[in-house]
Give the backbone structure.
Amino acid sequence: MSDLVRIKFYENALEANRDKQILAENGINSFIANEQLIQSDWLLSQAVGGIQLQVFEHDTEQAKKILQNYKDNEEYSLEVDYTIENSGFSFVCPKCGSNHIYQDEKPGGIFGISWLILGFPIMVPKNQYHCYYCGHEFSH
């Protein structure tokens, strides 16, 4: 029987469980050590070496390669997930590059001024855009 080997350390359980799930999807059994202990008293994290992802010794190299591939492709996969066809805009969010954007439909400053001067409002939309993906607000 193979021994368990620590392949990665984490500060929080979410990242550890994400990587455990990635390995499971690729057919590798993995285990998380110290998760419960650190969640009950996070001050013990330094003493026990953080939350640890462990795999069987014979799966070590393959597990490291799978996690590295995920890390390398994470940015690309986000770009694919947050790109839509025919978005209606010829530009993308300057912060994250997503084309999931929408224009702010609230009236701009002219609305209030025209109401006071002319007695009726002139609806001129703000030239503000918002990104659905990262929440960034920008002008174009």
About this structure: The CA atoms of residues 28 and 59 lie 7 Å apart. Residues 60-81 form the longest helix (22 residues). The beta strands are 4-10, 30-33, 51-56, 101-103, 128-131, 137-139. The chain has a mean pLDDT of 78.
